[in-house]
Amino acid sequence: MAHDVAHEPTHMGLPLPNGKLALWLFLVTEITFFAALIGTYMLLRNGQPTMAMPWPSPTDVHLVEWIGALNTFVLICSSLTMVLCHWCLSEAKKTSDSAKKQAFIKKAVMYLAITLALGCVFLAIKAVEYKAKFDHQILPGRIFELKDEKNSTHNNRYVQVVKVQLEQVIKDNSVNAEAMKMCKDLLADIEGNRISPKEVNERVLGTKSMKAKHPGLANIDKLPSTYCDLPRKSKPADAPLVKGVLEVDSHAHLSFSIPYGNLWASVYFAMTGFHAIHVFGGLVVFGMYLISALMGKFGTDHELAIELTGLYWHFVDIVWIFLFPMLYLV
Amino acid sequence: MSDNHDHAGPGFQTYMMVFGALCVCTALSFVFNIALGHGMTSATLIMFVAVIKATLVGAIFMHLKFDWGKLYCIILPVCVVTVMMVIILSIDATLVWHAAPDSIVPYPGE
């Protein structure tokens, strides 16, 4: 396969091998694809959310910045090993010394294997991140967004879910003593129907955490009273803070309101999911080359094919270079 | 064909230097995030660093520094379309933002 690509004639027009031209045409369609995803993310992020109900912060949705940075480092390393693989094949092609040629080809195979391993590490880290999202139900359509004070079906369902979660936490004895007492009190209040969905959210999250999450809270009096996840009316700005279970024990598996959480989850899984599929595609191609290396068929004829695969892999790296700051940092 | 394809690409040292620069840039964006928190300044700086990283990967790892003369006619139009799309979406996003009933950002002139 690589042999055929390497010997394709250059047509009139662009002084490039056909394979390289075709790959660049493919890459520009990929640029528009990811630009559309990123543009949509920007539109959603800067569109409806306001100062009072901002876009979820990384901590709201269990995103850990250093894990994202680690994944960036892993992909950068893989880009380096990929380009070194191509460099080794170029050097092997240039030299006429048979022993040197074989040494360069051997090195190229080693770099390719490292690239494959690093790509697998990237996907493994992503899988760990996805698992955390599934564990905390940070999934499209599964996040509670208490946007009004009415006892709507959505809000009442939130209370029922928290009730089940509290029963589980108490049964498993999975939190510290202070949090356990708070859980029992909260469960008693829910069972006694003495508490609104808004108050349940406050007692899970704690009003101090909510104030820290909402920088627009200083202007709370100027805003229309439509949102139940902010302490207002019955809880004026100088009201004593309500301590939340999660403030006492952050490991408690209790749901809380994340405004725009469903929208966030949709764009997060769309962007990182499509990127992960591209990474997987690259790994399949690396695997094919490694198999041909094991069969003794990998050599300088593969130089152009490896360069084209490298172009694709570096593009995947560039996409992540933009996804990482947009999702984890900004 | 093979002669056409061969070019004086970057060497081992250049690749290692670019790799070092990419690592430093990643650390920089992390430091900006910690030092400046979430805000317009940090967002601008972090995205600027991302553009530098993407340029380095494109220019050196993807050999665009050497192939640009042959490929600009494919890449430039797509870049123009991408920038145009971001500008168009930004206008729409800003209008929606101002139209939000609880927006605390005043309309121009208010």
Explained architecture:
The complex is a heterodimer of chains A (330) and B (110). With 330 residues, chain A is mainly α. Chain A has 2 domains: 29-41 and 50-139 and 262-329, Cytochrome c oxidase, subunit III, four-helix bundle (Four Helix Bundle (Hemerythrin (Met), subunit A), Up-down Bundle), CATH 1.20.120.80; 153-257, no CATH class. Chain A has 11 helices and no strands. By secondary structure, chain B is mostly helical. Chain B has 2 domains: 1-62; 68-110, no CATH class. Chain B contains 4 helices and no strands. Chain B has helices spanning 2-5, 12-36, 40-61, 64-99. Chains A and B meet through helix 2, helix 3 and helix 11 of A and helix 1, helix 2, helix 3 and helix 4 of B.
Q: What series of H and E elements makes up the topology of chain B?
A: HHHH
The oligomeric state of the chains shown is heterodimer
User: What level of helicity do the residues of chain B show?
Assistant: over 70%
CATH class of the largest domain in chain A: Mainly Alpha
Structural class of chain A: mainly alpha
Q: Identify the overall geometry of chain A.
A: elongated
Identify the CATH homologous superfamily of the largest domain in chain A: Cytochrome c oxidase, subunit III, four-helix bundle
Amino-to-carboxy terminus distance of chain B: 66 Å
Could you describe the largest sheet of chain A, including whether it forms a barrel? none
Provide keyphrases for this structure.
heterodimer, A: 330 residues, mainly alpha, Four Helix Bundle (Hemerythrin (Met), subunit A), 66% helix, elongated, B: 110 residues, 4 helices, 79% helix, disordered C terminus
Summary, kept brief:
With 330 residues, chain A is mostly helical.
Indicate the topology:
The complex is a heterodimer of chains A (330) and B (110).
Chain A (H helix, E strand, L loop, with lengths): L1 H5 L11 H29 L18 H30 L3 H38 L17 H20 L4 H15 L5 H9 L1 H7 L31 H4 L12 H34 L8 H27 L1
Chain B lengths: L1 H4 L6 H25 L3 H22 L2 H36 L11
Helix pairs in contact in B: 2-3
